[in-house]
Amino acid sequence: MRLFLLTLSFFISMAVYAEQDLYQFDNNQQAVRFEELTKELRCPKCQNQNIADSDAIVAKDLRDKVLALVKEGKTKDEVIDYMIDRYGYFVHYDPPVTPATLVLWVLPVLIVILGFGFIVIRQRKASVKQTWNSDDEAKLAKLIAENKRQEQN
Predict the structure, then answer these.
(1) Is the whole model's pTM more than 0.70, yes or no?
(2) What are 3-12's contacts with CB under 8 Å, separation 24+?
(3) Are residues 78 and 69 in contact, defined by beta-carbon separation less than 8 angstroms?
C-alpha cells in the first residue's frame, strides 16, 4: 500500500510540473517586460483572452515569440508592432484610431441622433395637422345630423 501511495504522489507531482511553462530570463527587466506583453497581447484564436492566460497552441507560439523578441533586446513597442504586422490590430487590446474604427464609433451615434430628429420633426408636423377649429366642429355636426336622418329613414 505504501508503494502504491508513493507512486501515486509521484505521478500527481509530475502533473503539476507539466502544467507550468517556465521561462528563463537574463535579467528581471526582461521578465517584467515579458509579463506585461503577454497580458497586453490577445490570443488570435481565443476571443477575449490574453496570451498569458490562454491554453491555445497559437498562444504558446506567441509567448515563445515574445520571449525570443524580449531576449533579443526589443522594446515593448517593437514587440507590439511585430505582432500587429503579423496578426493585425486584433492581437492588441488597445488598437489605434483609424478611419474604420471612427466609422464604427460615430455611425451608431449619428443613427440615433437622426432617428431622434426624425421623430421630433414628425411629431411637430402631426401636432400642426391635428388642431381642431370651428370649421371642423361645423363639419362634424353636419355629418352627425346627416347620419341621424339616414338612420331614421
Answers:
(1) no
(2) none
(3) yes
3-state SS class at 105: helix
State the burial class of residue 70 (Cβ atoms within 10 Å of its Cβ: 0-12, 13-18, 19+): buried
φ and ψ at residue 5, rounded to 5 degrees: -65, -40
Rounded to whole angstroms, the Cα distance separating 2 from 82 reads 54
Residue carrying C-alpha cell 513597442: 77
Q: Which of 64, 59, 57 is nearest to 24 (CA)?
A: 64
What end-to-end distance do the CA atoms of the chain give, in Å? 111
Count of Cβ atoms closer than 10 Å to residue 31 Cβ:
14
pLDDT tens readout for residues 60-75:
999 999 999 999 988 9
Q: Say how far apart CA 140 and CA 98 lie, in whole Å.
A: 62
41 close to 62: Cβ distance less than 8 angstroms: yes
- The answer to whether 34 touches 67, Cβ cutoff 8 Å, is yes
Alpha carbon separation from 142 to 44, 103, 146 (Å, rounded): 76, 58, 6
Strand partners, 41: 92
Rounded-to-integer distance, Cα 16 and Cα 13, Å: 5
